[in-house]
Amino acid sequence: MFGRKQHFVVALLILLFFNALANATTVGFRSPVDYPAGTAPRGIVVADFNGDGKMDLAVGDYGDPNTGDDGGVKVFLGKGDGTFHSATSIVVGKNPCLSGSCLVAADFNGDGSLDLAVADNDNRVSVLLGRGDGTFQPHVDYVVSRRADSLLLGDLNGDHHPDLILLAFDSWVGTLLGNGDGTFQDEVVHSTGSAPTGLTVFDVNNDGMLDLVMTAGNQGIETMFGNGDGTFQAGFFCTCGAQEFITPHGPTEGDFNEDGNMDLAVDFFDDHNKIHNQYSNEEMVLLGNGDGTFTPHGTRLHSSDLLGFGGVVSDLNQDGHLDLAIAFHPLVGMFSDGSGIFTVANFASEGLATSIAAADINGDHFPDVIVTNFGLGTISVLLNTAQPVAMLRLGWSGNGYGTVTSSPPGINCQRSINCGPPFDAAPFDIGTAVSLSETAADGSTFGGWSGACSGTGACNLVMNADQSVTATFNSPDFLLSGTAPAAIVAGKSAASTVSITSVDAFNSTVQLTCSVDPAPALSPTCSINPTAATPAANGSASSTLTIYSTAPTVAAVQPAALGWLYALWLPVGGLTWMGIGLASKAPRNRMLPVLVLCVVLAAAFSLVSCGGGTRVADPHRTGGTPPGTYTITITGASSGSLEHSTTVMLTVL
């Protein structure tokens, strides 16, 4: 059936909730525009490959192994108006994209340009690094254990580098961890507890780590919790409506009832009567319980054709609720009202859809639909005909917290809790008057608007074009600073004035401490007086930082002991007394030289015995604080959770 070049009438069945919001929009689609995309296009990804701000397409063409057609990848550069230039063909591995979930785009080497990865029919994954101009470097192939039927992206080990996840139907899950430089580690195979038929990757239990969620035949849904390091725990199962002949396929995730837990939309395939070529498909929404299990819920869609080929989540009618379009035969779309309940509308297309993507390709803020038509060798582009809208985007400033809401409803953003898509942006019909209101959280104050509004009063806008508004919330805080101390020599001290400045009426006590780095032997020390200070509201307070250094020290060396010279005193003394005795008998003029000689000898020996003949060593000197530059860190902490630091530099000469 896939080889026949025949046309199929495909109904785009849209479940659309018409709500009472001022920006409620009726969705429609123009007639499809087809582009040749090879022999058998089966996978598609939408991204800006040449960095011009316009969405481009990459399509995986399976080719035809029976005729030696190896297929490849077709790249369509977008013109920004919903049309595309003719495709450029890129050679990859042999016969890529056996199924629709085979092609992914991400920045694998961190150069700011998008790259491609595609699974082929020859047990390989081809990686093509983008040059940023819509062209790619030659493919680099990674051998895997089996032919991959699905290829997905995710950061499995928390290193902020994209990883590749592969699924071989009825077999295994493999992962290739990215190195962040455009290369990948060898494949790691993860054992499953089932024969999976479909795979999606998301954080199912809200622990910040990606998990594997697989459709597992009549066992239902198998979930393997991620450990955050690229490994996974053993799988567990949720029957979730599966039966012997009624099995789930094509899982697609999204928070359809907006409770903070990710949900699943799966295609339940009933093959009771497949021997008579009678099939039944039933699309079921499974609401996530936040623990890896799911509960069947809400509207079910039925089709009597073959199995669906996956889906895409997007807010097609821009009502702030996630919708779902599924590549059934015929094509099916499901649009949520935010509670998991859906309503229906129909649109026509043509072709045998094997994959689907949704993106705004003409710049009107409404996602358009692109499908691959396997039976025709084309892709079809269906432009959303909803009226253009003006987008209001909210930004944040300051260190405080608060909530901003809009009237009419659309923006409802509480900083630090749910201030991200889709809460911080909303579409409004052209000409709609919008008022933004703010509520500061306890301990915070509203500092005012900037952007499309200013001041602290009401923010009132008329949405004739896209506009952005920034809300500033402040929390009482303090600033810490210190004056530069003068350079000193070892043994001296220096002082610095530490200032605590109140911000937004801060008037709590700040405890002050200091430290010195580096800290060799005899490094400077520091102290702060007083160690706590309280600034007046919107005023300041100060303390004195004193930095001390150690002075050099000098110690004299004692002379060596000369005790043997003391013995010479005895004969010297004897000679002296002898000279005196003889002097009494000899004439004075003859004895005078003798007496003089005795006195000189006595004096000489006295000097020697007292150290006069010893060489005294130089004094021993300790240098004190080593010269250099030291960093003094001053830390101030309030009784709450506020803590700030500042540094001053001290030079010891």
- Strand percentage lies at 35-45%
**Poorly predicted tracts of residues:** 1-24, 560-570, 582-586, 605-617
The radius of gyration computed from the alpha-carbon positions, rounded to a whole number of angstroms, is 42 Å
- Molecular shape: globular
Give the proportion of residues in helices. Answer: under 10%
Structural class: mainly beta
Number of strands: 48
- How would a textbook summarize the main sheet? 6 strands, mixed
Distance between the termini: 89 Å
Number of helices: 3
Mean pLDDT: 82
Walk me through this protein's architecture.
This protein is mainly beta and 653 residues long. Helix content is 6%, strand content 44%. The chain contains 3 helices and 48 strands. The strands form 12 sheets. Strands 1, 23, 24, 25, 26 and 27 form a 6-stranded mixed beta sheet that branches. Helix 2 packs antiparallel against helix 3. It is globular, with a radius of gyration of 42 Å.
Keywords:
mainly beta, globular, six-stranded mixed beta sheet, 653 residues, 48 strands, 6% helix, disordered N terminus, four-stranded antiparallel beta sheet
